[in-house]
Amino acid sequence: MxxxxxxFTQQVINGLTVGSTYALIAIGYTxxxxxxxxxxxxxxxxxxxxxxxxxxxxxxxxxxxxxxxPFILLTALIVSMMVAGAYGFTIERVAYRPVRGSxxxxxxxxxxxxxxxxxxxxxxxQGPRDIAMPGQIQGGWSWTLDGNLLNLSYMxxxxxxxxxxxxxxxxxxxxxxxMGRACRACAQDQGMTNLLGIDxxxxxxxxxxxxxxxxxxxxxxxxxxxxxxNPMIGFIAxxxxxxxxxxxxxxxxxxxxxxxxxxxxxxxxxxxxxxTEYKDVVAFSLLVLILLFKPTGILGKPEVEKI
Amino acid sequence: xxxxxxxxxxxxxxxxxxLGMQVQAADTIxxxxxxxxxGPVAQYxxxxxxGAQMAIEQINAQGGVNGKQLEGVIYDDACEPKQAxxxxxxxxxxxxKFVVGHLCSSSTQPAxxxxxxxxxxxxxxxxxxxxxxNRGYELIFRTIGxxxxxxxxxxxxxxxxxxPKRVAVIHDKQxxxxxxxxxxxxxxxxxxxxxxxxxGVTAGDKDFSALIAKMQKEDVDFVYYGGYHPELGxxxxxSKELGxxxxxxxxxxxxxxxxxxIAGEASEGLLVTLPPSFDLDPxxxxxxxxxxxxxxxxxxxxxxxxxxAVELMVxxxxxxxxxxxxxxxxxxxxxxxxxxPIGTVEYDAKxxxxxxxxxxxxxxxxxxxxxxxxxxxxx
Lengths: 307, 379
What we know:
Chain A is mostly helical and 307 residues long. Chain A has helices spanning 2-36, 43-63, 69-96, 104-126, 154-176, 178-188, 190-195, 200-226, 233-248, 253-273, 279-293; strands at 131-132, 140-145, 148-153, 228-229. In chain A, strands 1-4 form a two-stranded antiparallel sheet. The radius of gyration of chain A is 20 Å and the shape is globular. Chain B has two domains: 3-145 and 280-345, Rossmann fold, CATH 3.40.50.2300; 148-274 and 359-378, Rossmann fold. The relative contact order of chain B is 0.13. The interface between A and B is large, with 39 and 34 residues. Chain B: Belongs to the leucine-binding protein family.
């Protein structure tokens, strides 16, 4: 009994960790969709760039002879958030703003183009190979019960906690701050918001910067956790995060969190009790099922047609 | 008047340039080198390219073949089957008749269909999947062993030297990885050792915590992984972090220094089946020096096989005094044995080497390897 219970708990922990990372990336998709109604397919690439940036900063500071780990990590986090934010701002300016007035499909194609460009740009700039970094934060807690092991690494706890904190502060920002109110207004009716004297261009730019900064947080955490990066990681991560966002209800922040966690736990449960081969199959079947019965996703609100 | 002059000049220079290319083309025999220049396994592509390039340079320095110089052209298939087919068609369009490549079995297989149809001679220095030469093709050869020889070598080493109780066989669901994993599973099970898990992971995945927890629960004490280094590197790294201490073994697809970069300390003691270290063979000392003089590493498993592939093509061209791929293929099949850097080469009817041994090595955290203990059992 204890053995199967421990095993179950272990797999839930694994699933929650993976799920948190999906959720962190999913926020970027869901925010942009909520405000301008388009899918930013280049978002996974910003996550990838965030991972590279944090690797570069950590390696650079270590080479300079610094030994204060918290300082190095914090600097890496802040720098990668700032630079990724700049990428987010530029992507919006270059690829999305010029086509914003036209059909949605055009913005979508522009986004895919941006994603391919960024992938290949990083391939040229950093090389196509896997770049690895030794683990910075190692170890964790483990409990033994009747000879069975339960592991909880520090990194897993950090990932979960940072995800919850980011989600919560973003929620506060959107619901309490002046800028957040402008964002919500923008989501409801851009034209009207503009008439009331709010610069919608600025609001949309801010949305992209925040989304990109959060993707960089995910990149930083996952870079530390897995220790490996290559220019292609953004594609799969982006796909999974997009699925999480749709599952939870795209446009909804708590939905992104919930969707990410459900996806992560489903995958890990499939791997645990069925077979690793089928974890993607089961995860995507779940997505299809939920969309069949609730097309807006778990926490999504039905869209009201604007006249 | 001025524009007319410009146009004339432009036209003349284009004509001259194309004339120059014609002359150039007539004087060389082109050899395509197809493999991954980009993508996750590009380092294996490098091994193949430096090996083939070295052979071409040395042969040119000795006066070329039948009075003509060789010219190597690199094509990037990124180890993706789709791109490999595009590359193969491009090679056909470029009129090249000899190909060294491809690298990944899943790329070589579809590309070889095209080469066989179009009368192009292909020698792969790295693809070990048996299916490639199992289709009765005339123009498809290799300078490396097969999975069904590599698998049993690994399997026998596990059975005779490790003697584990509960084995997990994991693969990456690709032709190469799964093929070799099945061969290992069969050998291990034959000896009465239970394979408690046989599962596939998705290439490109980064998180293996669920899989590792499952192996822990199943009390697995030895893991064989069929696939490439990025996934096994992550599995090793995460196993160490999660306190999973089984022994690991993989095929030559995991045996390059990058696995140590990814897995760090966790790669110490990993067992790898590789082609023998041809660079340590005293006969090849001069060749090894030539690589070192260029700052290249001759110890990669595919360097010497790729060198050999070019050399065999050249021996065929010399032997038939022509460049007809069919004649050369016929020559290679019937006129052996040939002396090459990978030893004495002789082909069977399928285009496989009659003899090619894999050897078990122990991998170290600094990216080097040493022959594994009791090597005679491996041969």
